[in-house]
Amino acid sequence: MRIFITGASSGIGEALARHYAARGATLGLAARRGNRLDALIASLPGSHKPYVLDVADAAALRAAAGDFNDDGVADIVIANAGISVGTLAREAQDLDALRRVLETNVVGMANTFQPFIDAMGARGSGRLVGIASVAGIRGLPGAGAYSASKAAAIAWLEALRGELRGSGLRVVTIAPGYIATPMTAVNSYPMPFLMPADEAAWRFARAIERGSSYVVIPWQMGVAAKLLRLLPNLLFDAVFARAGRKPRGLEL
What we know:
It is a single chain. By secondary structure, the chain is of the alpha/beta class. The protein contains 9 helices and 9 strands.
């Protein structure tokens, strides 16, 4: 099994790398922090390749995909890289944060998949896995950039699923709730159903193996997300206007 994972240096990406390496997979691990990647690979069983890059850089991802596929076409590609930062529409400096979040969380996902699709399609099998978020179900005040990026990711993955129908490739959308990672560690508000990263990785891997088109993990957050969708706007606005918010100016 050959698996390419972005955002692999910490959090969910690191947990997925450890999960799959323990099961004998050969990994291509991409992230911006080379020192973290090197330390991770040194701690894993097996032989794996590091790729120090930013997913907003399409050329770098094409080069990484070409190098990884030289030793055999990827079986699974997991677009996990993402950043989360609190933003406010009234703040001019937060426009740059919005642009960066969208470039990473949406365009970066497309950049990750594109160079693998032809080779996987020629073989007629494979999994393209996009890590979205329940934050994409409704727009959360103070996290407009993150919510917008994850809503766009969910819609883009849905479109890709139809685009690749009949090709042998399965598109898997995973929308995590609260997972214990550095990204959530900065949150000062309650996080219901918070799940350890290693357990989340195990559950993600099961969904990927099944080829699930869309799954919320943990399932309790899926129920909560459906209820949020049903809330009238007036009630949703009143409740979430007072909810806790992620700090501004923090990028992970």
